[in-house]
Every structure is written in C-alpha cells, then in structure tokens.
Amino acid sequence: MHELLLFASVPANQHYELLQQLAGLAAMQPRHRIERRLVFKASRKTGRINTRLGGGTQDVQGAELQRLTKMLTGATYYTHAVGLVRESDFGAAAVAETTAPDDDKAYDFENQLWRMEWRDIPEAGTRSAVTSRLMANALLPQGDVVTTMNSWGYEYISTLFVTEYVIEGDVFVYNDTTLFLHRILNFAHDASSSPSSPRRTLPPLKELSLLDPSGSYLLQAAVTVQDGSNPGMVKTATQHLFGLKEQLKTAVKLEQADPEQNLKTLLDIFQERWIYQDEKANKCYDFLREDLVWQYKPIVDRDPVKILTLRAVIDESIQRPEKALTCETLKPRPIFFDIKTTPVSHIFPCEIQWMIIDLLGYKEIPKLLRAFGWVLSDSYWSRRLPRDLKFELDDLDNVEIDWQFLTLGVEKLLQRSYGLLNRRRLLPVDRRGVGDMKRSSSLAGAVSPPPLKRKVESTTTKSSVASFFTPTSQKKPEKVTWRIVNKSLIVGKYASEPGTSEKFESGMRRRVAAFDFDSTLISTASGNRFARDAKDWKWWNGKVPERLKQLNSEGYQVVVLSNQKKISLQSDNIKSGRTESKSLATFKEKVSAVMRQLDIPLSIYAATQADEYRKPRTGMWKELMDDYDLDLDGRLDLKGSFFVGDAAGRPADHSCSDRDFASNVGLDFKTPEEFFLGAKPEQVIRKFDPMSYINGDPDAAVTPTFSKLHSLELVIFCGSPGAGKSTFYWKYLQPLGYERVNQDILKSRPKCIKVAKEHLTAGNSVVVDNTNAGAETRAYWTQIAQEFKIPIRCIYFTSPPALCKHNDAVRAANPLLNPESRASLPGIAFGDFARRFQEPQLSEGFEDITKVDFTFEGDEEAKNVWSRFWV
Hints:
With 871 residues, this protein is an alpha/beta fold. Among the domains are: 1-42 and 77-257, Hypothetical Protein Pfu-838710-001 (Beta Barrel); 477-570 and 578-677, Rossmann fold, CATH 3.40.50.1000; 714-859, P-loop containing nucleotide triphosphate hydrolases (Rossmann fold, 3-Layer(aba) Sandwich). It contains 29 helices and 26 strands. The strands form five sheets. The protein has an eight-stranded antiparallel β-barrel, surrounded by four helices. It has a seven-stranded mixed beta sheet with strand order 13-14-19-18-15-20-21, sandwiched between helices. The protein has a five-stranded parallel beta sheet with strand order 23-24-22-25-26, with helices on both faces. Helix 4 (231-247) packs across helix 28 (827-836), helix 5 (259-274) packs across helix 11 and helix 25 (749-761) runs parallel beside helix 26 (775-788). The longest helix is centred in the N-terminal third of the chain and has 17 residues, at 231-247.
C-alpha cells in the first residue's frame, strides 16, 4: 500500500482552536489516541524470511503480512510494534502486582495487543506536491511481543532494541482522509543502563518529556491507496488532499514533508535516547576532534549512533554553521570509525541514512561515506533521479569522479537512467562487509505464524439467563427502546414508566423543548475536549438536569436532536457475532445513562449521515412530528417551542448549524449559556444567508443579461459547480437556439469537443456548460473558435463558494429543482475549482465577457425550499 500525506505544524496555543475547526470540518468528535511504539531492527539473511512461531508449519500468512515480508526481504529495516494504550495505563501497577488480575486500573503488558508496522520515510513528491511513502502492517499474535518479533526474524537483544516512545493525539476521519493531530513523548531514562527490554509498566504520563519542548503538535493528513502504481487512484487521493488543504488554508498550512525537518525529528528521538546530556557533556561532546575521543570515552560509549557527527555533515551541506567543516576533518579514524568494531552497523537505522544522503549534494556524499565507511549500491541512484547526476558529474573534482565510477558504475547507470527515472529505492544503502544485498526472487518456503487464538469472553450474565427463562408475559418492558430509520437516523425513546406512553388532554397543544446533545446537555467528565468512552460524560452544567425536569413538569415534550456523523450503523466485527458497531453501542450506552439519570419521558434523534436528517436540514424534526402526531393541524405550539444548541455561529463555534436549523423550522433559538445560565445573547453575523439573494419584489421582471450577436458563435461558461450555469442556459440561451455541451453528461473533454464540432458544422451555435476554471482549459475552446473562424464569448458566473455549496445541496435534495437528477458533489469539487480558478480575460481571445451575479428566480414553492439553510 501507499500513503499520500500532507503535514502542518501547529503551535501549542492554537491546538484547542484547531481541534474545534477539525471537529466542524469532519462533523465528528475526534477519537483520542495514545500509541506505545517499540522499535525493532530486522536481522535476517538475504532472501530468508522466518515468520513461523513455536514450530508451527501451517501457512496462514495474510495478504498484508505477505506484502510486508516481501518489502523487508534482504534489507535491514527498522520496524515498529505498535500498541494502543489508555491514559489510565500510565502510572498504573502491573497486573502481576495487583490482587485482582482483571483490575481495570492495572496495566497488563503480557496481554497488550500489538501490530507490526512498517512505514517508509516520507519523501516529497516533487510532481504531485504531496508526500508519498510505502507502508505495511500485520497483527501480532497476543502474548510476549519480544518472543514473537524474535521468531519473525527480529532478534531482541540490548544492542538491537533501539528505543520506545509514545504518540499522543486526536484522530478525525473526513471522507477518505485520516487527520491525526499529535505529538511525540519520550520516556525518561537512565543513561547508565541499557534498554534491554520494553517497560512492563508505564510511568505517569506527566513524567514523559515532549520531543518538541515548545509543545507544538503535528497535523498529518493521510489517504491510503491500495495500489500505488495505479495513476487514477493516486490522482484521486491527491485531489482529495488538495481539497482538504484548501478548506483548512485559513487555519493551517498543509504542505508536503520537509526532508530536513523529518531528519531532525528522527535525530532528536535517537539523541534523546542515546546521549547522556549534562552541562559537561554539552560543552565537550565533539567527535570531530580526535583528542576528545579518548578523553571522553565514557561519553563515546553512550553514543554508538554518533549523532553529533551526523549533524555536522548535514549542517555543512545546508550551510547553516558559520564555520564549515572540511573533507580532511571527516577523515576516518582507524578505531573510532571501524565499521567492524563499533555498534553503529547494528544500531543506526537505514531510514536516517537515506534521509541524510538525500539531503546531501553530490560533493558532500563522499565525505559521509568516508566518515562512516558506508558503500552505496546502484539502487540508491535508481531513486535519486540519475538524470540530475548526469548533469552534475562534470562539476565534481577528479578524486570524487573516480570514486563515483568505481562505486556506482556511472557509465552503465547513465545508459539506463531514463528507465530508472521514477523507480523507488528499497535497498539504497549497503555497508562495507555486508555485500550487495539483493531481494530474493522467490518467497518459497516462507511460512506464517499459526492462527491467532482468540480469547473467548462470555457475555452471558445471571440476569440475562434469568430473563431468557422468564415468560414474556412476566417480563418488565424496557425503559429505553431503539430503532433505526432509513439506515441513517437513530431514534431512542425513554419512558419513565415502562410500557406507557405520554398522555395528554384531547385538543391540548404541545410545546417542544429541543436540545442539541454534546456541549449543550453534557460535556466530558475527564476534562478533555472530547469523550473517550461511554462513561466519560457529565452534565454541561449542574443546572441542566433540574431545568429539564422542570420543563417536563411544565408540559413540554423534551427531545434531543444531534448530528452524530462518527457513528457507523454497520457492524465492524461480524465474525465475533456483534450485531452493531462499537461506535453505535458506545453511543447507546452513554445516552441510556443520561436518560436514566433524568428519568423523564425523553426522545433522542441522532443523524449519522450527510442526508435529509442532518442539521440544519429538517428531517429529524419531521420524524419527531410524525412520532408524536404533531404534524396534524393545531397539535403543535410552534411559538411556544424552542431549540437550544451550541453551534450558533459565534466566533468560537465550529459551525452555525443549530441556529440555522431553528431558523428552518421556525423555532426560537438560544445557546446553552443563554438558556441555562441567563447570559446575554451574542451578536451573530452569518457568513451566508440565502435570503440576501432573493429579490424583494417577486413580481419584478428580470432582464436577461445576454443576447445572441452572431448567427454562429461559440459561448463558454466559467463558474464553480453550483453557480447556476445550467439554469441560466435553460432559461436564456436555449430559447435562442444554442446547443448545450456538458461534460457531466458526455463524461470527457474529447467527447465534448467532438459533439461541439458536430453542432458547429451543422450551423448551430454552441454553449459549453462546464466549469472551465483555468485559462489552459479555456484555450481548447478558443482554438476551436479559431478553427471555425467564429467569435467566442465567455459568460462568467461570480457566485461565491458558500452560495455554490448551498445550490448544490438544494439541487441534490429536491427532485423538483433537479431535472437531471444530479447527486450532491463532494466538498473537494469546490476546493478543486477554487484551486484551479483563473478569472477569464479578454486577452484569451474572447469577444466579450459577461458577468452574471446570482439572483434567485423561481415560484413561491421553489423560493420556500431555496431560502432554507442546507449546509
């Protein structure tokens, strides 16, 4: 698999604000994630893969494990064993030290679940402007991770176990993009001791040190592509990242990986682990001076990776230090740099080697090779664009040219450089004495570990057994009932007296007190911004439960209307027998607990999809009206009803969906602060209001802004999706005899050009109803106009993005306004247009450019639909 990525650095003081923005973008609360990462080094003979455990012979190797072992064959990689841990695991005692083995407060290292993960170092994609890297992973059998990794070809001894660290952050999922806002934490360690084994217990989280002392976070946006060699899949994933970059441009600057920064991060991790730092060491630690090597030999022993030597070479390359090092300075020391007698060949990761060499120029590379005794294989240059080497060879001095020829075989390499231009490297660095490690052509004989033995946990309890054998007539009805509407809307209902329904006097008008859920009725008990499990909740304010009970006693029907896009309605583990997803089960558990504490008649409606039920759309309200028979004339007291929500369009709010929903329904709206705490209303200015585009006089005549000037002419539209282009054609240009060419219908530009030429040849003027965002695209049509020797004109639709998204949503959700039955466009479509857009100019060859500002036109029914809030 391949992973396409963009990154952004986030200062600590902007972390909370960005969390809110990402929650609004993804329409979900993030999943807090803490990963414990153990780093192992592969140690296997070329072409030999050993993935058999305990003498097993059955080949049960999964597809992911097969791909992983193929990538690692014959090369020396650093891989990770990754395990998810809870915040409560830090500072907890080991299970063996507790009186109760199943104590939730204890950390059970022996039963920690791990997965083996390999990710290539991100490399900048110079052509696509995104970062790409190979990746693979495989689940490890439950048990001792060291024993498992050792049997898989990863020896576990003190010199091979490099380090362990922790990644902590929050995960969002937006369409097919995973957003991970995180930071790296390091364990405190005793420099005098060697990390011979992973920690069996975890220290308190507060005792871990930040890799970045400033506390900044890294935002990683990643799209996984199953087949990285498929240009179509890569292009689609890249476009999705571009769209996300555009949407977040006001918050963060997403960019491709900076190799230099990646290298610094890795070096910081290893320096933190291997260098004993005190004032004396910081002042005197310098391996570039031979007289200090033996004077401070204890320090040398603590740094088998030689971090400072590497930093010196890199700094020379990027010309940061004022005093540059010379080639003579890096002359190999017979003992200190002897590859056979120093631990560097066993410990130093290839990932860092690649990044170092990638950063260096062709004149600096020999210095590094001399300093560490490394040898480069041809495969390194297969990835490093040999064509560039071809033009730079003449600039090298004679000694370095001789070295290049002897080591690389440049003549042979240059003969095939174009064929190797875009190949990735897998075996870029070989060490002297190891030889040229080549991948085995066959994996025959490689076997996998035996099937994972699952621990079967019984879910049967005494109460469930008793309930099973109790006659139906004697069972007490459940207080909480659940149902799913149209595979989208979750409806939960709580009856304070099981089996009864609310009864009201005949003819009594009902008032509804409607509330949002998260950050309105409840917040997290842990103090975190987002809940981590079903039990992590508390009342938003102590006044909330009593106020809700008071509303019930006053005759209000209390309901909750909540957007819950993160909930999946599909089971995520069918083989286990689970009938619903974990996210759905967690949501039900939390809501049921809230309902039981209130113990009043209460219903909750939760929209899980971007459809008619999602606020600000009114599908949940319509379902509520139907459930309580309030859709009949006179049953609902709309003026006496209200809605309370936190998405109110205030500066700190992630959206305005709650306020817009209340406006669509006609409900009085209040924020939680206003309703529960009596705060004064804040002034809110909506970024988009559909009413501003509706003519105040519905009977006023609208004069067409375009007329036909020639018997045969070509007209092209320029405007965002949803700008009103097709509607403008049907109303004003079709009556004038123009034929329409549309790529949504014809599917490709060549087909559009073919059909347009056929119409022009037949003597019919043509309108090109496409977005035509850039001058390069429009040039195809100006060329056709020149070919037919006819004028070409442009109609430029100026509709802003918010209006276009509104039009698209209205069109997709209302068949009467959607004659071509178009589906709703993904958000990336609008971002992609904005990225490519260049305002049309007469210099492109147009006879004239007509600007069309959007104004709604339609009957009263269409107006009522269009004037609502939809996004």
